[in-house]
Specification:
Blueprint (H helix, E strand, L loop, with lengths): L4 E5 L4 H17 L2 E9 L12 H28 L5 E7 L3 H11 L3 E5 L5 H7 L2 H8 L4 E4 L2
Parallel strand pairs: 1-2, 1-4, 2-3, 4-5
Helix pairs in contact: 1-2, 3-5
Length: 147
């Protein structure tokens, strides 16, 4: 199967960068489009039991945006070394598997490449598996990179 458009979510972790390098290699091999996204929660305190002020929220959003752009710039650098152009987007909303899937559908991608930390046991139970959620909730092909 020849891929036309790959989506790779990144969060600044080493495993997400490993996934982006794999996506770049596939994009290069198939001469296809690649889009890297970074999710930023618009209201990370929703459901919290404390009140927060506007300046705290503004500070969070500025820092989150800065970190997202930094992660996406790193992916652009990886792609440039391979002669691949990558589109980037900061996606604001909920940091969920559903947001990745909605973005993939909106972007009309035919492959999602993402990293998985490979948590097991209690860590998986308490922290969940973001990659597993994406895999279970989409009909699109998903490539999981573990290292």
């Amino acid at each position: 199967m020849a891929y036309q458009h790959i989506l790779v979510p990144v969060d600044g972790s080493e495993i997400s960068y490993a996934a982006s390098k794999q996506a770049i290699a596939i994009a290069k091999a198939f001469n296809c489009q690649i889009t890297a996204i970074c999710l930023v929660a618009e209201d990370p305190f929703s459901g919290a039991d404390f009140y927060y002020n506007a300046s705290m929220m503004k500070e969070y959003l500025e820092e989150a945006q800065k970190n997202a752009l930094k992660a996406l710039d790193q992916v652009k650098q990886f792609a440039a070394t391979e002669g691949v152009t990558v589109n980037t987007e900061v996606v604001k909303g909920y940091v969920t598997a559903e947001t990745i899937i909605e973005t993939a559908e909106k972007q009309n991608v035919d492959l999602i490449v993402m990293g998985s930390h490979g948590r097991k046991g209690f860590k998986k139970f308490f922290l969940g598996s973001f990659a597993q959620d994406v895999l279970n909730q989409t009909t699109l092909p998903v490539l999981i990179v573990k290292e």
